[in-house]
Amino acid sequence: MVESIVEFFKNLPAKVCATCGNEIEEQHECYSNQCDHCNIK
């Protein structure tokens, strides 16, 4: 069964940084794959 689009986005897992593995504090559907700390390096 297909759930509503709102429920889909609410249930996405937290994103983790591709470089350091820390959880990224942003919307989970965002395209970024690095945290702010690693993105500045």
Global Rg: 12 Å
Quaternary structure of the protein:
single chain
**Strand percent estimate:** under 5%
Q: Ranges with pLDDT <50 over ≥5 residues?
A: none
* Overall morphology: elongated
Question: Helicity level, as a percent range?
Answer: 25-40%
The number of helical segments is 2
How is the main sheet built?
Answer: none
- The chain-level mean pLDDT equals 82
The CA-CA distance between the termini, in Å, is 44 Å
Structural class: mainly alpha
Q: Please count the beta strands (DSSP E, at least 2 residues each).
A: 0
Series of secondary-structure elements, N-terminal to C-terminal: HH
Overall description:
Helices cover 27% and strands 0% of the residues. It is mostly helical and 41 residues long. The protein has a domain at 14-41. It is elongated. This is YhfH family protein. It comes from Sporosarcina newyorkensis 2681.
Provide the descriptors you would attach to this structure in a database record.
41 residues; mainly alpha
